[in-house]
Amino acid sequence: MTVDRRQFLTGVTALAVSPIIAGATSAPMTLEAKQGHIKLIPEEFGDYPQTNVWGFDGGVPGPLIRARQGDVIERKLINHLPQDTSVHWHGLRVPNAMDGVPGMTQDAVPTGGEFLYKLPLQDAGTYWYHSHNQSTEQVARGLYGVLVVDEETPPDVDHDIIVVLDDWRLSQEAQVTEDFGAMHDWTHAGRMGNFVHAHLTPQLVSVQTSQRLRLRFVNVATDRVMAVSLSGVQGKLVARDGMPLEQPEDFSVLTFGPAERADVIVDVTAEQGDTVQLAIHERDTDYLLQELKVGGRHSSGPRGAIPPLPDNPLSRLTDLTNARTVPLKMEGGAMGGLRQGRYKGRQLSTQELVDEGQIWTFNGEAGLPEAPLLTASRGEIIRIPIQNDTVFPHAMHLHGTHFQEVLPDGRFGPLKDTILVNPRESREIAFIADNPGDWLLHCHMLSHQAAGMKTWLRVS
Ligand code: C2O
Ligand code: CU
């Protein structure tokens, strides 16, 4: 099935009644966390049964939430699962009470319970939502979906395609294996799956030469870093983690730590009878994830340069003169990284930490510390040099606002909400602390987060 731009825009117009009136008179839309089953493994791999999942509205990915920049949307989470849950709106600048972090911004929603999320959509872009409770298990079972905030004037493309990159650990019967807290995973690179998959929305099967495509990549894997490439197209990287780049950039391989996103706009260069291919690069081999047939030539012909996306109302850094620096050092994990550390206010030996399932530390402390890493006053500029003193990569995610990398030459990188810090590497992030509240800063390799890699900061 293909949905073209025109149909999509008609749909948006039809829904664009005043959100204030709509909110006042109608019940909020629901988002039900519940069990379901999906056909995950394609027929060509053999005759596999459906996979049992936990999904929003029972599907994986959950329903695509799509609205226009400036709208305020509501979703009432209803929990039908046998565990508590919550929803975090990854990358959205939301009021703190809507951030979905149990024990910090709300109580976890128990079985049968509800929670109303009210989300002002300040910035256009590609975001996602996922469970933030027992997330190593709940995200692995499928509790995530994509949230797209459309620009007031979206760029002119023929297809706007969401590409969800996921990584499943499946049994021979195509069921999610229930070894969620496996210590060997937690001490190493995390819970790696055995079935990497790219889910497209809409589920397009063919394109035409010279068509312009916008592809929105989202890595929802709990732990896997994905390096993907496209062939049969030519274009530019236009946004990262939802935020427009000031200037579109060339790209060849796109690397995504868990939770990272990118938008590209590309023109199909492959000719009729050929294909557009999406591949993932793993250990010197490329594996095909998706293939689109090229059926004919688009009538309008080539369209010229790819313009930058309209910018979002979020200030970028200009200088760091009055910035405060608070370093963060990561230690732990297997292969010599594991040391002693504090946990719940006590100094523990290496073995005692392992017994607690805590094998990673930030500044010598495992798990969520009682005191924040820092307290910023509103508007203050904070720099956090992050030193990875382990032999594993970590995808560091800050809630509540985007940050920029401070590059070695003093310039600033693009706005991001997650940054992949490679083994033994140091990277520095900086941001304007202008969203009040308590915000997590954690590794988005969810196994590492569960095993210690989390802290928080307060903006007052
Ligand atoms: Cu996408 Cu704290 O998470
Ligand atoms: Cu990590």
Automatic annotation (TrEMBL):
Q: What region holds the Plastocyanin-like domain?
A: 47-152, 199-272, 354-459
Q: Does the keyword Metal-binding apply?
A: yes
Cite a single Pfam family from the UniProt record. Cu-oxidase_2
InterPro entries xref list: Cu-oxidase-like_N, Cu-oxidase_2nd, Cu-oxidase_C, Cu-oxidase_fam, Cu_oxidase_Cu_BS, Cupredoxin, TAT_signal
Record PROSITE patterns: MULTICOPPER_OXIDASE2 (PS00080), TAT (PS51318)
Key words of the record:
Metal-binding, Oxidoreductase
GO MF: copper ion binding; oxidoreductase activity
| Entry protein name | Multicopper oxidase domain-containing protein
Gene source species: Parasedimentitalea maritima
